[in-house]
Amino acid sequence: MKPAPFDYFAPTTLEEALGLLKQYGSDARVIAGGQSLVPMLALRLARPEVIVDLNRVAALAGIAEDGESLRIGAMTRQARALASPLVHEKLPLLRHGLENVGHPPTRARGTLGGSIAHADPAAETPMVMLAYRATMVLAGGAGERAVPADEFTLGTFDTCIAEGEILKEIVVEVRPDEGTGFFELSRRRGDFAMASAAARMRLDAAGTCIEAHLMIGAVAPVPLRCDAVAEALVGAIPTEVRIREAVRLIDLDAFEFDNPEISLAYRRHIAPVLARRALMQAASRAGDLRQ
Amino acid sequence: MTIGKPVVRVEDERFLRGEGRFTADYTLPFMVEAHIFRSPYGHARIAAINLDAALALKGVHAIVTGADLPEGLAPIQCRIPTHGDLSPYLQYPLARDKVRYVGEPIAVIVADTRAVAEDAAELIEIDFDPLPAVTDPARAIEPGAEPIHESGNLAGRWGFDLGDVPGALSEAAFIASDSFSIQRHSAMPMETRGLLASYDAGRNLLDIYGPTKVVHTNRNMLAAMLGMGEAEIRMIEPDVGGSFGARGEFYPEDYLIPFVAMRVRRPVRWIEDRVEHFAAINHSRDCAFHVTVAANRDGIITAFDVKLVTDMGSYIRTHGDVVPSHAAASFPGPYRVRNYRIDAMTVMTNKTPTGTYRAPGMFEANFARERAIDRLADKMGIDRAELRRRNLIQPEEMPWYVGTESVKRPTIFDSGNFPLIMDRALKAYGWDAPFEREVNGWKRGRGLCALVEPSGLGPFEGVRIEVDQHGKVQIFSGSSNQGQGHETILAQIASEVLTVPMEKIRVRHGDTGIITFGGGTYASRTAIMGGNAVHSASVGVRQKALDAASRKFGIAVEDLDLREGAIWHGHRNEPVVTLGGIARMLMPGNQEILVSPSAGNIPDNDGLVVTSYVRGVTAGAAVFAVHMADVLVDPETGETKVERYFVACDVGRQLNPLIVEGQIVGGVVQGLGGTFLEELAYNEDGQLTTGTFADYLMPNVYDVPPITALVFEESPALTNVLGVKGVGEVGPSGVGATIGNAIANALATDTGLNKLPLTPERILQSTGFGGLQ
Ligand SMILES: Cc1cc2nc3c(=O)[nH]c(=O)nc-3n(C[C@H](O)[C@H](O)[C@H](O)COP(=O)(O)OP(=O)(O)OC[C@H]3O[C@@H](n4cnc5c(N)ncnc54)[C@H](O)[C@@H]3O)c2cc1C
Predict the structure, then answer these.
(1) ipTM above 0.90, yes or no
(2) Is A115 a pocket residue for ligand 1 (Cβ < 6 Å)?
(3) Domains and CATH numbers, chain B
């Protein structure tokens, strides 16, 4: 469990980091919190020739308000984001997601950008960003580009980050008047989920749902957006009965993952349960906001 | 008085300060490191090995393969008696023509550093001809199955047939029958294995740091394999970060690392990494029972009829077939059932070889028996505790001869009042108290399990106690310490007898250089065997000191007394002499008591030193325990929450209640891991699919429920002077059974929950995915 030999660079600015990526091309890999990359190095599943360490690039970390949005630097530690009053107040779904990411020690090192760039199908933060329809800002030799979350994750451990690019920050538009819900089931607390659900909902003054989002994670290479469920709720009072009916519209055929210990049948059984609970929680919180 | 006191473990301070010294903390001048190249295949022939590129890498000193091992080297021997001849299945330190499990050592690479050695491993070229992997024991013994060894895949078939099982079955009023399986899992000590071997060629002396558990046995095995004298090898146990039965057995590496150190003439260190550990350490548990239990109209259990198939993995190791053997010998548990039959098969597969893991055979047998008894109680419509109560062995029936044997020794329960402990346990827990069946949609269930855990097995143990001129006491123990707290309890016993404070006592252990013979630590034996050896040596020291004082001061021994580490004369308020003073008197060369010269050698004193070996008693000491738990189950998802866990047991006598409680609580947590999470799973190609901690799930701190230990000292062991019974294994032993029973109770189901681990999915399956939304 010793990594294959590599060269190591620790730039302090984004420009320097991008320069190194340009110089070494496909031989180079950035490291953030190392919580996923270091085990892969140790198992020699990843064997980059060059490691570019982003931990000293101060400009990549931090959470800032920008009008209606929050901008979260890719190198922001998961623990920082979890403790941030801004996140608590404006992005409750991110907070609920992060509470389920690993453990205090892994969150102390692990970064938000690393989690999103790593694109584990069961990871919470990419699903949360999909639920928020966030924007990923990528920096590269030719400047920056903004990619919507829906186009960012391509598959298991696969994103649209191109050679020479770094995920710089994540921009999330903030909706103050919505309720959110998050539920996941894992074998142990802190593990990757067997299935997860994230929901957002807005209600009008009469308690009618005017906007809903539902994502199901850990069942397919990319978290599933369940528009049919959302559409079935818009225009309705989101009662338990209504939500139970709506989650039947989850496209169970789109589920792919099937392992000996966590079968497809089981995932198809629990995902609607989790979705219902997340939607109920979102509805109840949205309801609280109206009072 | 120190025995029985909650003395804080003397080991804790150095561990908590990070001052423990583990194998990886040891280095020696000129030391190099080893890495083992292991089979990537579950079953394959080795056609050719090419080492050229690997040997050419800078920093590589040597690479040893099977071809380099001495001609005529014997395989690693099994150290305990087995059912039948298992010698065709023993493992050689390195594979030669064929590999039989993923992780089997093929070559040892010695290099400047571990990293270089791993780089070299990638350059080793091996032509493998893959063979079909056999991973399912049922398939392994079908005709036409690919043979793993020439002697066939069925290694052994044996059993017991006591009383009249067919008769009892035909007359039974109630019968419950089902299959129960326990998944392959094993010990995951925090510290993996490690060895540092240093060979002094000039003097032909070999020192090895890192062995543990049974160092004298291992030393003798190594001496035989290397053709060296036993005294030419010294094995030294550093601090050890856990074993739970697996660490410290004689593994291929225990030969290979000394062997390469002698070849390269430099100290060689090998620290097992976690990925190696998963594939290399003895696996355990992997077995399936079919149990039929019969009862008459009065709820008296009349028969157990059992079939047991154990997946032994690819080789027989040092433990032989002791795991299924213990399971078979103790299957009837605490019940007075005289009609008992078991048909046991041990089957070879292309998986890592197996050995013992805390509560070997017992965790498994208890799960199968106690789940079956719950099924029976449900059928009869009687309370589950009541059914057990009616069938317990009675105190006047002690000692109880089960009628079986394991490792060629009869299974005997020496003492105990099972009904009394059971009643007190039920009362303390509130077993009969009604409880809310449902909380926020979760179902609550309650389960129990009764069991007997054998302890204190093994032939003998020994210690030497030395008192120095300052009255400080050193205990040289033949047993080992892997984190259980033996330094503390052994010192407590000496402290009690010698009336010397704990601070003045040091315990050394696990070192073949300090004591001639040693048994080791396994089978919850050190408190019993090591403890009684310390007791007997301490009594010897006391007597020797009193005799010496009597001689020197001309006072009758009966008028002398050992108190506060000194010899006192009656009630005078000055001691006659301290233990340190006696030690000085008894030093060889002491002018004062030099005997008059004579021709030839003059015998002299040998210090205030006493060596004592105590003999093991057949079947040791039996601990009776009752486990109970309340568990919540989410019927929609199969999630569970253990609300509280309770263990009552009779340990005869507690040497240290803190350690007893710690052993029980830690053991329960380990049992919970085996019940809910841990599994060493293989796919059809014989690949280990749960070979890192990302997939092999151990309980973490959030999963630990409140655990209560209620410890009784009701029936002191009759088989040792201290009256102690071993407490190392009662914790895990009943967890699978108790939790399975509690979940079945919660879901009111009489199917399923017979396959560990109890994953959420399996829990839902037991109700046919009921509770659909
Ligand atoms: C015990 C444990 C439990 C865990 N449990 C969970 C869990 O429940 N849920 C969960 O989601 N995760 C979990 N993780 C993973 C953890 O959240 C990781 O921190 C995360 O996946 C990666 O973040 P990192 O900062 O450590 O990235 P690294 O490991 O450093 O990098 C991961 C990958 O992302 C790339 N990368 C990193 N930053 C950037 C960037 N700015 N631009 C481009 N590429 C980048 C790297 O090149 C690498 O390929 C767990 C990890 C551990 C060790």
Answers:
(1) yes
(2) yes
(3) 415-453+621-773 (3.30.365.10), 460-615 (3.30.365.10)
